[in-house]
């Protein structure tokens, strides 16, 4: 939903009704994960994707029907269906999508969600996708932030329980369907609530205002990272040189990084890339990076010789073996790249592999499942949309 949210809010403010389709569950080798969304606009345009192209035509028609009828509905597309090839989902997976009409009437607090995402504040949206309770309507929304909640799913006790559960998912950055019985009983399953967690984008902090940093900023931004370029030299650290960066900061890297950690703006999804090749910048920056939370990616550019010299200097400054084991140096995967742009791809490829648990092996030579960690649960053929 994050990808289509800016336009969705704009059209909402203009009084339009948009058909919003969201992936709420996947089974097998599905092309996109829960939370992926597409929007059919009032002028017939379309934004986003729920399947990477496989079933977009069918979903587009579904969105038109939902806008016309004003009734939200859930549909399943998958290889197990008789018409799977007709809609084009040939990847072998199955997806459940929830399609709803979005307008000021159906979603009065949509602008609050947009404002939270713009301000990089965590927010989750809970939507009823099916219900056997008359007081809990399909399509009801509840907007949940760490400090407050707005809206209602139709029943106060259900609201209370969903807020608790959604905040737990939001803390983890996870998106999922939750099931409840009457009065929010967690042992029931007659009510399905899709919780779409929209935590702030992961951060990519690049130290060193060099040409490789410009290419890395472009690659990181394209992958959804909030990119900061930091360098102590004001003549080099300028927004004009790094147009893809969200922030260009003039400061000593170690001082900036420690200030960001003290402010709570560094978490386990952050990637820190040191590209300066200068010990007076590199070593203090890496010492500060070693103080970051577990899970933070820490990489440093340089040749083998530069790496060996850097490791020696870090040990002399008291870096432990455990701290040095966190360092990815020389940075990046072996792709054979030469240009700054190719090097940026190499670096981002390693960040993705580390974050997602990938091997870096070509898929041709991979004998395991292409999508590691996906659900092996087979879809229930008796389930119907509702």
CATH class of the largest domain: Alpha Beta
The fold-level CATH name of the largest domain is Rossmann fold
Number of domains: 3
CATH superfamily of the largest domain: NAD(P)-binding Rossmann-like Domain
Find the structural class using helix and strand composition.
alpha/beta
Low-confidence stretches: 373-386
The main pleated sheet reads as: 6 strands, parallel
Instruction: State the order of secondary-structure elements, H for helix, E for strand.
Output: HEEEHEHEHEEEHEEEHEEHEHEHHEH
Strand order of the largest sheet: 13-12-11-14-15-16
Instruction: Report the end-to-end length measured between terminal Cα atoms.
Output: 21 Å
Indicate the radius of gyration in whole angstroms.
Answer: 23 Å
Strand elements, count: 16
Per DSSP, the total helix count is 11
**Mean pLDDT score:** 88
For the record, the CATH architecture of the largest domain stands as: 3-Layer(aba) Sandwich
Shape: elongated
Helix content: 25-40%
Strand content: 15-25%
Description of the structure:
Helices cover 31% and strands 22% of the residues. It folds into 3 domains: 5-102, no CATH class; 110-198, no CATH class; 203-358, Rossmann fold. The chain has 11 helices and 16 strands. It is α/β, with parallel strands linked by helices and 386 residues long. It is elongated and about 70 Å long. A hairpin with a 5-residue loop joins strand 2 and strand 3 (46-48). Pfam families: XdhC_C, XdhC_CoxI. Residues 204-351 form the XdhC Rossmann domain. This is XdhC family protein.
